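Ligand: zinc ion. Inputs:
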Amino acid sequence: MKATGVSRCIDELGRIVIPKSMRNKLGINSGDPLEFRLEDGSIVITPDKGRCSFCLSDEGLESFKGKSVCRACLNELKSVE
Ligand SMILES: [Zn+2]
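Predicted complex:
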């Protein structure tokens, strides 16, 4: 990823403001869940799109009765009758 040169100070509670330009670029809004992970000594923050309620996959998610379900599990559910 290209360095943008934006610097922020962390406060005494560990909070930090994500620059508005970056939030706008990724479509991150107030109240959105974010995922943190450590990667080679850096903290990587990505929008958390949620995970499948059954297998915890984060790919091909669809919403079913307010729950996130991946397409594979959705197909399995459809075939159970
Ligand atoms: Zn699944």
